[in-house]
Amino acid sequence: MDGDFPLWLRAQHLLNFILIGMLIRSGIEMLSSLPRLWWRKDCAPGTEWLKFTKRELPKEEGVYTSLMDEKSLHPLLSLPGRENIGLGRHWHGLSVMFWVLNGLVYIILLFATGLWQRIVPTSWDVIPQAWESLKMYLSFEVPDISHFEPYDALQMLGYTFVIFILAPFQMLTGVAMSPAIRSRFPWYVKMWGGHQGARSLHFIGLVIFTGFIVMHVSLVFLVHRDRNIVNMVFGGGEVTTARAAQALVVMVAVIVAVIVFWIALSYWSLADRVRAQKFTAGVTEIGRKIFLNHLRPLGAKKKAYTDKDISEFHWTNGLPPTQEESQLWVEARDNDWEGLTITLRDDLNDVEKTLTVEDLKKLPRHSYVATHTCMQGWSATSRWTGVRLTDLMEVLGPRPEGARYLLTESYGLAQKMYDNRPREPFYAAIDLETMAEEESILAYERNDHDIEDYLGAPARLRVESNHGYKHVKWVSRVMWVRDYADYGDGRGGTREDSALQAFNGRI
């Protein structure tokens, strides 16, 4: 029997509960990777408005990497837990996709069936009525059941706010943190206060959502409990002691089952992280293909960011090569890059050429202002100058037949390997469409001076439509390849191999 609360409504309510839990838990995992929040676009140490760590950061640039700030959370709390930002991001994206889909179906059915009139106020009388209800709750009194038809005025305002204001707000601030959106619609991201403004607002929205859920669940059991649980489980009908008891058992069992499911997702992910990455990244790639892959940077048309937006501070993720890691790079650094070369290679036909830093600077220059974002959450805005990848690879001649990706390697080593084997050179692959973007360059200057050692000197990759893990520093080699699956662990880059990020870094 559907009664006043049809089966579709109850089913979507349950699905929403499951997905919201996944969103919150994966969001906690993402926040734990960089447990600090800023309003400033440069994320300078000591300027956080909120932090969840006691660690104090040094003021000097380039001595403290963002991975050093990562916290390890228990799988009971976060999804999946234990310093797995890559999987946390994938689970968050997967949950968002299904949560938005579930919400769209809910809104369509709500208006198609006329049930929207229960939630959306149609008269200003709801304001004084809601005020009276609020005063009752604050006085620890319970409004009479006659106030609920089926919701009282305060509930109506709360549901309207969450469904039609807070949920869209979370979606809008969430997409504002995508580098693909920022490079194509920079004005939109700037409207939210840049990447850090969007990130902070998104967190505030999470807190409000969590508070609403706690209050909502509490009131279900504190205010006319028997009526509430009968409606939620059976859809309405007569409220008897026996029926209420039956509904309570079903509801508690379902809540326990959902909590077990949330925790099981964490342990399933940690039991085989590569398997979890293949599943979650595979599902979320569907969303990237539909909504993001066709978005290309504005390039020279971009007017939203200028030199006035340049940040005072720039974080790093990874430290310059040491003598043990790359003696050649260290000796060249100490000798004004004398003797250091960057190799351009056609790996399909075993053809290569080498360029010195001076050779690189003789190629056509390209300069722009862009915001760099790390998948952990920090950001910094700089002017980058270098040579477009399309111009760079023309030095080798026409693109070889069968080349489908551009792979870049570093003089530096990975910070850690997935299976704890000896560290290997850092690398990343990008597809040809991304390579051809106007803001995909091999940069040798930042803010009109040579790139700092800790940020990738003498040359680093810039791929502005992707997060920073694609931006290889201390570049040693750039080459055409047929398939990135033939290199490293076959997932398209060091951070994809070791941190289980997605090959597509556009969100």
UniProtKB/TrEMBL annotation:
Cellular component GO terms, alphabetical: plasma membrane
Keywords on record: Cell membrane, Membrane, Transmembrane, Transmembrane helix
InterPro entries with a match to the protein in the record: Cyt_b561_bac/Ni-Hgenase (IPR011577), Di-haem_cyt_TM (IPR016174), OxRdtase_Mopterin-bd_dom (IPR000572), OxRdtase_Mopterin-bd_sf (IPR036374)
Keyword Cell membrane carried by entry: yes
GO MF terms, alphabetically ordered: electron transfer activity
Location(s), subcellular: Cell membrane
Membrane-traversing stretches: 96-116, 156-181, 201-224, 244-268
Pfam families: Ni_hydr_CYTB, Oxidored_molyb
Keyword Transmembrane helix annotated: yes
One biological process term in Gene Ontology: respiratory electron transport chain
Domain Cytochrome b561 bacterial/Ni-hydrogenase: 5-235
Domain Oxidoreductase molybdopterin-binding per the UniProt entry, residue ranges: 342-481
Main subcellular location of this protein, as a coarse class: membrane
Membrane topology of the entry: Multi-pass membrane protein
Protein name: Molybdopterin-dependent oxidoreductase
